[in-house]
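User: Please predict the structure of the protein below. I'd like the answer in structure-token form so I can feed it into my own downstream comparison script.

Assistant: Understood. Taking the following sequence of 162 residues as input:
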Amino acid sequence: MNRIVIRDAELKDAEGKGYVHYKSWQETYTGLMSQEYLDKMCIEKCVNIAKKYPENTLIAEVDGTIVGFACYNKSRDTSFENYGEVIAIYVLKEYHKKGIGKMLMDACIKKLSGYKGIVIWVLDSNKNAINFYEKYGFSFDGGKKEEILITPITELRMVMNF
């Protein structure tokens, strides 16, 4: 692996980001949520999301190929008014354990440094993500939400204060 670049997303990145979105969901959530839901995902939908929402997105490139991304913004949680939120952070499985997730999180934290802290929601069964966030300094605060993605899933809120 050669040069890793973390940069702001551009509209031209939609295909690459969409692919990473689709592929990383298949790699990350198989066995953790409804396979029927995952089977209904498609690259085209993920590319369209990337085209529709290019702002507040960071891209991770290795040798010019998009291998990860992170999305950040003001917290959507009304009880955390002056907090930022890392909405998504995904890296293709073959690039795990190479520091790319850490580089993306560092860049998100820098972008959100004007807030009191950062909120992140994580699937309760995603132990790898939970471990990553805990190592980063996030901790559970008791926040919990249920969603139906064909079958119910539970997301837990983690917070890091600055």
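That's the full token string. The mean pLDDT is 94.
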